[in-house]
Amino acid sequence: MPGTNLTREEAAERARLLSVSSYEVELDLTTGPDTFASTSVVRFSAQPGSATFADLVAPSVEEIVLNGRALDPAAVYADSRIALDGLETDNELKVRATCAYSHTGEGLHRFVDPVDGGVSLYTQFEVPDARRVFADFEQPDLKATFRFTVTAPQDWELFSNSPTPRPEPLGDGRAVWRFAPTERISTYITALVAGDYHVVRDTYTGPDGTAVPMAVAARKSLAEFLDAEEILDVTKKGFDYFQQLFDLPYPFPKYDQLFVPEYNAGAMENAGCVTFREDYIFRSKVTEAAYERRAETILHELAHMWFGDLVTMEWWNDLWLNESFATYASVRCQVHATRWSGAWTTFANVEKTWAYAQDQLPSTHPIVAEIRDLEDVYVNFDGITYAKGASVLKQLVAYVGDDAFVSGLRTYFRRHAWGNTRLSDLLGALEEASGRDLGAWSKSWLETAGPNTLRPVFTLDDSGAYSSFTITQEAPADYPTLRPHRVAVGLYDRKPEGLVRTHRIELDVDGASTAVPELVGVAQPDLVLLNDDDLSYARIRFDERSVATLVESIGDFAESLPRALSWVATWDMVRNAELPARDYVALVISGAQRESDIGVLQSLQRQVKAAIELYAAPAWREEGAAKWAAFAHSQLLAAHPGSDVQLAWARALAAVARSTEHLDLLSGLLAGTQQIDGLVVDTELRWTLLHRLAATGRAPEGQITAEEERDPTAAGKRHAASARAAIPTVEAKAAAWASMVDSDELPNETLMAVVLGFRQADQRDLLAPYADKYFAKVADLWATRTPHMAQLLVNGLYPSLIVEQRIVDAVDTALAQDPTRVPAPLRRLLLEQRDGTQRTLRGEALDAAARG
Ligand SMILES: [Zn+2]
């Protein structure tokens, strides 16, 4: 029984049989709050006499007509498929159905604003969810033109891939929007956004005078917070940069960016109609790091207009190429065309940390992943697909040279515009441009899994100079590939102006051991940094003297990138039980005050919290948390009034506050009886403070309700639900659990908020009974929830705070069930979580041994 799955073989067979020319999709959004009417007319050619199927996920199907022949829906529609046989050379399929709005962010999501009753609808179709809105052939290589005709309340704003037409009133409060046909695109990047939106319009004018109409929109109740000018400014810089880099004009007739509620991902590259999560509209003060990441997302989606939308992967096994390219191109654009010229530091801090962590999981896979079916794709939007792929692409640019890379890319876009490609098409274009054979490179970097680890090994002569220096390379036992790495080695010494690089050597590291004769005779520096400048994708380790230097002086680096690389490596050491959690906390305390990059500082704050909660010896946890909270408090008081650093420390303190002194401070800030100069206790910070007070038993239900009345927005309601789930009582935990597990009523974003509230590190006793409940329920949750919701629950409710061998054993028992109860994607998630528990067990043991 196929259910809602689709295998690669089925897709390939269908692409062999069919060529789709056009869709005419009519949607009526005025038929009710739960469902809408959908009519899809698909014109396609086929091999005469052949049979295939169309896709549709709908509560009911009223009419199916193939080439004028009425088919009985009861006979041909099952398991989300419409069986089609007796195909002719040219075919017309008409399907009239009643489709359902979703509350899970998949298909056509419907949201009602609690502030003004305004309705927001948006589509999210990646991976296979256009079929929840209209009957189609749901696979990326069956491109077609799409003509949408939509009936909706006449005062709504509508957006789709084509420019919004003038609505035609029907005289009864409704109107019809007839969108012009699109170019030939894939189903997963078609889109519709409709409802009570506030819109800001603008035009991008390129150097050659061509104009692209643009719009930015958000719910009306967020209008006052929508900083459209900044968003449009970043977008225009992206247009300038990408059009020049790709030497190809923007391929679509307009560019709309829509900030939509209850959105699962960061954003989605629908052709000319990009959707973003609403958290990117800042209704309270955020740090510069949030603006930087938003710009990264804006530029990532814009890059997809060429790479992904104009030229599209044939099947989901090349999802990585799509995502890696957009990630790489976005950071490159940030560095060259925006105020975030240090974006490679953020890339090292965020993307590479993600990639190294993902690459050490038992589920790690080659960048070029085997994607057998849709279920494989759902769980593959991971750190390999986005972050390792982007790291390796960056390295490929260094390998073939920037000029050859750009020239190959331009050829690739021209050659394959409006078509579908495989990895070999891009590599072929790069080989032509560079004259280099990329076969070996592809084999070692794209077709094998697991990270390499580089270590310095040396001897010293009597004068303290190196008498030998080698770089060793290791690989995990399960993924033993050693690779060629182009790396820089940096030698750093303490100077009055800080920790300064005195030598830089660039070389090729290959095999298990690579000698570095250039360093023989050079005096041992205070610190040796392998993979300096972050040229390669490799975990690094330090010698003893370098570790000592870091502990005393990590804050003294004159540049942000080597400091970030050192932070990334030391966090990786904590996660691998090579550095005790308490030493890491001490390291961060020594260096954090001089960390100049706000994004890096905020990562460190999160990592220290995780180090204490997950990797510290249980006997030291309280002490560690108290030490960290005291430090956060001191930094909060010392920070420049009104600065990002001040806000970051206020949040960090609120995340861990436990003592009466600190909780009194949170209460006082919330009540307004205490102030810190320059710290504005705005809406979001109020919820952060209240959440912690609720989690520590200091904010009763009544106080949460009062705050909800003060902030009666959708975000306020989610924060309140999260705070209620955090209350440290048996009853509150039971209620939260029931709302998540026994019911499927919570919309996606609220479910996420309750998961986060439920999981409190200092409530292990209250949470312990839920470990068994989790394992009793996990297979049912997987079987009965949509892919996104199931994944959220399986990962979010896993008892990661119960650091005991019995949890590892419980996973093993769960995995030993009938395989139909634990299909491959669920197995993958459970194995990843099990690995997390084993890491925390090892980390705790190391930290316990380090005591004293
Ligand atoms: Zn993307």
Automatic annotation (TrEMBL):
Pfam family, one: Peptidase_M1
Family annotation (Gene3D superfamilies): Neutral Protease Domain 2 (1.10.390.10), tricorn interacting facor f3 domain (2.60.40.1730)
Enzyme class, broadest EC rank: hydrolase
Listed GO MF terms: alanyl aminopeptidase activity; metalloaminopeptidase activity; peptide binding; zinc ion binding
Positions of the UniProt region annotated as Disordered: 700-722
Protease as UniProt keyword: yes
Domain Peptidase M1 membrane alanine aminopeptidase: 232-445
InterPro entries: Aminopeptidase_N-like_N (IPR045357), Aminopeptidase_N-like_N_sf (IPR042097), ERAP1-like_C_dom (IPR024571), Pept_M1_aminopeptidase (IPR012778), Peptidase_M1 (IPR001930), Peptidase_M1_aminopeptidases (IPR050344), Peptidase_M1_dom (IPR014782), Peptidase_M4/M1_CTD_sf (IPR027268)
A GO CC term attached to the entry: cytoplasm
Claim: Transmembrane is one of the keywords in the record: no
Keywords: Aminopeptidase, Hydrolase, Metal-binding, Metalloprotease, Protease, Zinc
Catalytic activity: Release of an N-terminal amino acid, Xaa-|-Yaa- from a peptide, amide or arylamide. Xaa is preferably Ala, but may be most amino acids including Pro (slow action). When a terminal hydrophobic residue is followed by a prolyl residue, the two may be released as an intact Xaa-Pro dipeptide
Family of this protein: Belongs to the peptidase M1 family.
Protein name: Aminopeptidase N
Source species: Actinocrinis puniceicyclus
Gene: pepN
